[in-house]
Amino acid sequence: MYSSTARIFSAGIFYSLIIFTNQKYTPDWDSLDKRSLPSWYDESKIGIFIHWGVFSVPSFRSEWMWYSWKGDNPNPETVAFMEKNYPPDWTYADFAEQFRAEFFDPYEWADILEASGAKYVVLTSKHHEGFTLWPSKYSFNWNAMDVGPKRDLVGDLADAIRNRTNITFGLYHSLYEWFHPLFLEDKKNEFKTRYFPTMKTIPELYEIVEKYKPAVIWSDGDWDAQDTYWNSTGFLAWLYNESPVKDIVVVNDRWGSGIMCKHGDFYTCSDHYNPGHLVTHKWENCFTIDKNSWGFRRSAKFSDYISIEELLKELVITISTGGNVLINVGPTAYGKIAPIFEERLRQMGSWLKVNGEAIYHSVPWKYQNDTINSNVWYTASKDGQSVYACLLVWPNSTSEINLGAPVTSASTTVSLLGSSGGPLNWRSGGASGGIVIDVSSVKIYSLASDWTWVFKMQNIRSSKATVVDKEDYENY
Predict the structure, then answer these.
(1) What does each C-alpha distance from 417 to 313, 322, 355 come to in angstroms?
(2) CA–CA distance, 231 with 149 (Å, rounded to integer)
(3) Alpha helices, H only, 242-332
(4) Locate the Glycoside hydrolase family 29 N-terminal domain: which residues (predicted)?
(5) Is 434 helix (H, G, I), strand (E, B) or coil?
(6) What's the pLDDT tens digit per position in 279-333?
(7) pLDDT by residue (tens digit) across 190-228?
(8) Counting runs of H as helices and runs of E as strands, what totals does the chain give?
(9) How many other β-carbons are positioned within 10 Å of the β-carbon of residue 317?
(10) What is the per-residue burial (b if ≥16 Cβ within 10 Å, else e) of 275-293?
């Protein structure tokens, strides 16, 4: 990981909580970038990504199966799979009839998502294959109402989430489609024509916003053409000024080639983005439970799935360094969240019930990673009264936890979340600071959480001020 001593910023400096005004945004990045981040997004910390579509039927290799079969550089393994298992005249469109979602119960999904402890969900309304999970007027006979499930999957899940939970509903949408004739025509014309965004992409975006009112628009498929081709700033100006979600919506940074990690309410920068140090703009780490795919894979082995320990490590490091996590699951074509995904989500939820105060509404502390203990990452309460040390690995050979970053005082108290044993004994680490926490009284087998333990410390400080002032921030 990176430097453990990166400094943080006060909540009001690191990113602004939203202040609603009558400001009108113009369709340019200078104006759009001045919009404050709606506070709900940062406070939520944890979202669930759901990759679901026709690709869930072959469920081979990944959600890019069609492109790996028929794209510019076909994957030999995918070609061999199709030749062995399907007739010569089989097309990708034939898979759509088998995408039936016959066991899809949106309320069951809502219950699983609620149990995970996540505060928002992002469903793929349309991936690069172009199949829309809602009855789009702009995707005739290539949508979930006309073929396959014969139902509005987006609307069904949105209703269940809103009726059953307090989770915020969001949608992923791909700007481009691999094989759409209008997109291929524009591409052949070096994107000097704009048939595809004018007739397909932008109308779809307006449609899902007005129909489903998502609080997250997670854009993707942006890399071939510039944002001017997509008219991204024009759409976002409408989204921020006039749309039914103008006061709460957040968008990511994938709105055209060269835009990623430069513009947007939050940055993704890349899939699985986790820099390991503090980032000055709000960001999100989207990652998969299946190490090799965003969509469901029938061929996946147990070792292909991250463990709960790995998941929590990713979560803790991300939150410590100012990001949100968006944790992906890939449902089956028949509409079930596979047990391995459900188990990970419920395990995370049980951990958050014990340790959530160190995660939700938290802010980064002066230090992110401890200065002497690489297995410890910090968060802090917004009021600065509590600092949380998240211990990824419990020591086997000692009854003491040594931390280098905190500076103690006579009134310092330390407790372990999930323990009923009361305050823990501690001693100063020495003249240079630090603390040594005595855990000899802790019976780890009796704790409410089995992974990643959180020590709550009060009346401590770091070797410098807990938050930096504006001048320090500008010089960071």
Answers:
(1) 17, 22, 6
(2) 32
(3) 308-320
(4) 21-357
(5) coil
(6) 989 999 999 999 999 999 999 999 999 999 999 999 999 999 999 999 999 999 9
(7) 999 999 999 999 999 999 999 999 999 999 999 999 999
(8) 16, 14
(9) 22
(10) bbbbbebbbbbbbbbbeeb
| Residue 472: how many other CB atoms lie within 10 Å | 14
Exposure string over 106-126, b if 16+ CB within 10 A, otherwise e: bebbbebbbbbbbbbbbbbbb
* Number of neighbouring beta carbons within 10 Å of residue 161: 23
Quote the pLDDT of residue 15.
Answer: 41
Say what angle helices 339-355 and 106-116 make with each other, to 10 degrees.
40
CB atoms within 10 A of CB 441: 12
Tell me the domains of the chain and their CATH numbers. Answer: 11-358 (3.20.20.80), 376-474 (no CATH)
Closest C-alpha to 275, from 263, 258, 261 = 261
| CA-only gyration radius of the chain, Å | 24
Q: How much is the pLDDT for 18?
A: 43
Q: Confidence class of residue 433 from pLDDT cuts 50, 70 and 90?
A: confident
- Cα separation, 247 vs 239, in Å, equals 9
- Band of pLDDT at residue 474, cut at 50, 70 and 90: very low
The Cα 417–Cα 448 span in angstroms is 8
User: Torsion over CA of 351, 413, 465 and 6, rounded to 10 degrees?
Assistant: -30
- Compute the distance between CA of residue 135 and CA of residue 107 in angstroms, rounded to an integer: 20
Mean pLDDT throughout 34-56? 98
pLDDT band at 3 (very low <50, low <70, confident <90, very high): very low
> To 10 degrees, what angle do helices 202-212 and 232-241 make?
20
Half-sphere exposure of 264 (CA within 13 A, CB side): 26
List of E strands, 130-277? 168-174, 216-220, 250-251
**Number of residues that make up the chain:** 476
Q: How far apart are CA 403 and CA 122, in angstroms?
A: 37
Among all chains, which residue has been given the structure tokens 């949100």? 324
Is the pLDDT reported for residue 9 higher than 70? no
Diameter of the chain by CA atoms?
A: 78
Measured CA to CA, the distance from residue 255 to residue 122 in angstroms comes to: 17
Q: Which amino acid is at 439?
A: V
Confidence (pLDDT) at 464: 53
Pairing of strands 168-174, 120-126: parallel
Identify the DSSP state of 199.
Answer: I
Rounded to a whole number of angstroms, the distance between the first and last alpha carbons of the chain is 19
Q: Which residue has the tokens 């200065």?
A: 371
Spatial separation of the C-alpha atoms in residues 253 and 339, rounded to whole Å: 32
